[in-house]
Amino acid sequence: MSELADRGIIVRMNEFWIAPSILAADFARLGEEVEAVAAGGADLIHFDVMDNHYVPALTIGPPVCERLHEHLRAREIEAPIDVHLMVKPVDSIVPEFARAGASYISFHPEASDHVDRTLQLIRDSGCKAGLVFNPATPLSWLDHLTDKVDLVLLMSVNPGFGGQKFIESTIGKLAAAREIIAGSGRDIRLEVDGGVKVDNIGRIASAGADTFVAGTAIFGTDDYAATISAMRGEIANATASAG
Ligand code: DX5
Ligand code: ZN
Hints:
Elements: H1 3-6, E1 17-20, H2 30-39, E2 45-50, H3 62-74, E3 81-86, H4 94-99, E4 102-107, H5 115-124, E5 128-133, E6 151-155, H6 170-184, E7 189-193, H7 201-206, E8 211-214, H8 216-219, H9 224-241
Parallel strand pairs: 1-8, 2-3, 3-4, 4-5, 5-6, 6-7, 7-8
The structure holds D-xylitol-5-phosphate and zinc ion.
D-xylitol-5-phosphate is lined by residues 21, 23-24, 46, 48, 84, 157, 159-164, 193-196, 213-217.
């Protein structure tokens, strides 16, 4: 087993990954909530880190990630943690999240003075590296970086809050990002975050996304497994008919 596999960074069985965002979970019962979505078929646990500086809200940091990671490990639940940093500066907190059990660490390029160095730092810390694009952030940030990126995350809302409406222009941007990834010939996940729901996830998958963050659309329902399965059904229909 490689060190990455040991950290939960492996090729998952599902081609399309569902990543519930714990921002919409009941924080008073976080362990149970994460167990429930993992049992319901989640592939990743999306962990939103907000600093009241890069974005106005303030959420959770490395100690919570560490406890959650330990909680999952103790129950032999394999659900890699997908850390989405909405913080500035970025570099000082990367090793802390790596030590806290993160599998993926993604950041916004505007929040780092040296994007290439930050990506390398994430990989050197033993994690997969992701670059996050706000709705107005151009994909040209990828021009010289596809060899350093494991995940491209397109924000389909402006970052900072859950429960916002999906921004439609993300559909075209996803298609453009998918082309860049295909052209690079590299194994890079294409994730989408914000306003993803059962009724639009099919279109989002058709546009090229393979990894779907959903907060309120999952934790706002009573039966997480049923919601995740409905999402998978929509994705399967949309991608089968897209041929
Ligand atoms: C927003 C966060 C999202 C958020 C998505 O800044 O990055 O991950 O939790 O929430 P929903 O799915 O409710 O739009
Ligand atoms: Zn997020």
